[in-house]
Protein 1
Amino acid sequence: MKTIINIQLSQKELENDFLECLRNREIPSRFSYWGKKETFGWLKVCKSKDYGVYDKGVDLVTSNIPKISKCIQKSGHHEFNFISLGVGNGIKDSIIIEFFLQNFEMKYFPIDISLDMLNEGMENIRQNIKTVGFISDFRHFSDISELIRQNHYKNHLVSILGNTLGNFGQVEILNSLRRGMTKDDFLLIEVTLRKDAGSKIHGENLTDIIESYNNEDYKSFVFTPLIKAGFSLEDGIIEVEYGPNQYYPKLSSIEIWFRIGKDKTVNYADQELVFKKDERIMLYVSHKYNQENIHALLDGNGFKVCDCYISKDGLSGMFLSNLK
């Protein structure tokens, strides 16, 4: 049985939110998944040979899910609401559900800003499991968590896979999660890792990171929200940058910008917006961690790491945690 509940803002409110982001020249990552074109763009990226991050993530989940299950079994709890923040194509969730149903009673609650993404993800869940999807962004997590807890099991397994934490306001997300979780819940985070040599990044790691984003499929995907506002790729160029994050210097970040090539006036939500040549619009940001700073990030926001699972090449990892 599959049900979808919409607690998202109205279409008009979303448009006004996007309008304000255009004015600020900064498009939050959530809008990269908002709509049918955006959904298809992301699914195309997942299949792209240039975007190796996704396949590494699937391998990481597959190879470590027995260890994750064993760690959670030690809690003594055997009934869980599996809440997936940012369902994507649902493949990783399906792997988790397949294994966990062998040891736990489980219900599935995917959350995504996009109805199209939510439908795609739920379609790829082949197991017979009660499923209730929520159209929402992560800011409503605490309300959704309480609603689920009141009507289903008492304990949650919350997942944020695919470096989703690094693509959004990480402290804001963790604060929202903390408000909606109890000490008996588990949080499973997947992030992209960088290999450090002191303060330097290994050259081969740097090349891999940049090439995963500096390709036509990915750049087309992150540009799609601007099409809603009347932009085309011919209006400028996409720039991919990598370096220390301006707000979190211990983190490195991929930043993707659109540089306006000539003066441009667009109309969106009945408002006229003027963009001047060489202005830049932030399209996407993705933080890259090492094990030290992901531990520090979780610790500083009220979580303790129970166990971690690192890929053989050291470029991706999952961290299982509880509230302190």
Protein 2
Amino acid sequence: MLCSMIFCLTSCKEEDHSKEVRQTTKLFMEAVKAGDFTKASSYCTDREAKALGWNSYSEDATDEFTDSISGEGSATSGYNPSDAVVSIISSWIDQLCSEMITDYKISDEITHEKQVYTVPVDISYHDTSRLSEEVKSTAENYMKGDLSKLLTPEKMTELTQIYLSKGQNAMMDELFQTILPDLLNDATESYKASPALSDTIRLTIENVQGDWLITGDDGKLKEITSLRSPAASGSDGSGSSTEEAAPSTAK
């Protein structure tokens, strides 16, 4: 009888998989900190990756930002960015992704109920909601004076020649290839210099067909990693238009 009771107690005890869960959390957070959301998604179920919006994160963010400088309502509406300009934006997005999360710490207070684990993670991060304002502010500063450092008389002559020989779109392409790298880099440096914020996110991890995967979260991570593309300067009448930097013959 005693043996039966001991067997029942030991066999009915819920097995603790905190070690495996912690490892999944670590791999996930390392990928997030590195800005590799595709890799981070591999530690999630498809449903959770979709909920986070990471299935095509870089491509979507690049498209959104590109549309902000060429779409309807932008200061340069109708402009069709070349692959070279899109590549500059895409590289910048990838850099931003790697700068979002500055640090993290997995809590020791991992809890579970019926093999559903909740893992608190303390994180430090830069506020992406400020990013669009940093880009707009930097663009306005460029229009007020910094732009002259890039658009020398020689460059303005070159832009005029491109406009006369190849048209406005080609001229705008050259203009953006000239100013975007420095402008976005300066905006990023201001963004990185801002004080880091801190919060605690909670991940839900379960065993899915033999793999410990993230099946849910508390919604904070999506908000923290959400990029808001800046509206084109001057689209609301409050700032300078990029077109103001173009040669007068291009207007």
